[in-house]
Specification:
By secondary structure, this protein is α+β, with helices and mostly antiparallel strands. Helix content is 13%, strand content 30%. Among the domains are: 17-145, no CATH class; 246-390. It contains seven helices and 21 strands. It has a nine-stranded antiparallel β-sheet. It has an eight-stranded antiparallel β-sheet with strand order 12-13-14-15-21-20-19-18, with helices on one face. β8 (174-176) and β9 (184-190) form a beta hairpin. It starts with 14 loop residues before the first helix and ends with a strand.
Length: 392
């Protein structure tokens, strides 16, 4: 299935379902029940609750500042993204919306959810606010969540259709129909200080402009992101950029597709793509860029395949032009590669190709290299493709 140029792989192929699998819930934190004493409130980081990497509810035994209830106008949420969780602006907004959140540890992040008001925010392992979520009557982390009742960012509404939303936001730069979902995801670049808005619509049809929203994820791009340039207007197309380190490819493996570095890389490598669905995974490939990503059911990246001008899955893949892992080159022979990587730990073959698996510099990752030979003793063979993956 081919997608047009603007139907690009969404940087967060529905981040929400990935939270719902095999995660341990933590007891609700009710800040209104925090015991108070006569001890003066601290002047720094006045937290009602403190996110930590460990699973558990944290309370405080000191007097906490009282924040007045508020009704946000929508654009306040841009201001808290990227700020430390203890920042007073963050605390005023979060605690003005609700005094009670359910706390869940998801990977290295902490997700705080207010089910009564359809709102959640994600704090990363460095204790910064990374994402804000707004919901429209659905299930989140296994529980029913109400619709967010206040004004949404960018003056959009849950009553708006996709057509009405795109009249306000412009066309999305990335669109995807998740393989194991009946929804459609669209990624919009917001010129309000380099932000990305991911909207999930109640349809799997990329041509359905009457669909309404299920939920919204708001996140801030990295400061050096080329996806949006400050001061521009309307939609912007991600700028061409090269991957300057093999480290990025290695760190992508196992990550959910909302990872910021992977999102930037994929917006560059997938201006259009072909989708292949399988029983336990799906594969996004771009023959012109010579690259293919395979994701599991949980939207975590299982492997990356880098091509050297070859046929694969019925498509003619061009040569991958970015930096290869382990400082390899498509010009190297098998003999030269094994001087760098050592002998393979596993060898298999077909009538046309030979596949060798090598250790990488990272103990939990390995490289599977397919050569253009079927002869196990042929050290002059060159590379057909390279797969970066977890060790077996």
């Amino acid at each position: 299935m081919k997608y047009s140029v603007w139907l690009v792989l969404l940087i967060g192929i529905h981040v929400l379902p990935s939270y719902a699998t095999g995660k341990k819930k933590v007891a609700s934190t009710n800040v209104s029940s925090v015991p108070k004493t006569n001890t003066p409130a601290p002047t720094a980081n006045p937290l009602f609750f403190t996110p930590t990497a460990a699973v558990g509810t944290v309370t405080s035994d000191v007097t906490q500042p009282e924040y007045a209830p508020l009704i946000p106008s929508g654009n306040e949420f841009y201001e808290i993204l990227g700020l430390p969780f203890g920042n007073s602006k963050v605390q005023e907004l979060i605690n003005g919306l609700s005094k009670s959140y359910q706390q869940n540890a998801i990977e290295s992040n902490i997700v705080y959810t207010c089910y009564e008001k359809g709102f959640a925010f994600v704090v990363n392992s460095k204790n910064y606010v990374e994402q804000v979520h707004f919901f429209s009557n659905k299930y989140f982390l296994g529980s029913a969540i109400m619709q967010y009742p206040y004004a949404l960012p960018q003056d959009i509404s849950f009553e708006d259709t996709r057509e009405q939303i795109e009249n306000k936001l412009g066309k999305p730069v990335m669109v995807s129909t998740p393989v194991f979902s009946s929804s459609l995801n669209a990624n919009y670049q917001i010129d309000f200080e380099n932000y990305t808005m991911i909207i999930t619509y109640q349809t799997p049809n990329a041509d359905d402009y009457a669909a309404k929203m299920e939920d919204i994820v708001l996140m801030k791009n990295d400061k050096d992101s080329s996806a949006v340039k400050s001061g521009t207007t309307g939609n912007t197309t991600p700028k061409e950029k090269t991957v300057d380190s093999e480290y990025l490819l290695y760190t992508f493996i196992g990550k959910i597709n909302t990872d910021r570095n992977m999102s930037e890389y994929m917006s560059h490598m997938f201006p259009n793509y072909t989708l292949h669905n399988y029983s336990d995974c799906y594969e996004m490939s771009n023959a012109d860029k010579g690259v293919s990503f395979t994701f599991g059911k949980n939207n975590a990246l299982k492997s990356i395949r880098l091509f050297n001008n070859r046929l694969f899955l019925g498509e003619a893949f061009k040569q991958y032009e970015e930096q290869l892992p382990e400082q390899l080159s498509f010009n190297l022979t098998r003999g030269e590669i094994e001087l760098k990587l050592g002998s393979p730990i596993e060898v298999s073959g077909t009538t046309n190709e030979l596949t060798c698996v090598y250790k990488s510099k990272y103990p939990d990752l390995q490289l599977s290299i397919t050569y253009n030979t079927h002869n196990i003793d042929d050290l002059s063979a060159t590379i057909n493709d390279i797969v970066v993956m977890h060790t077996k």
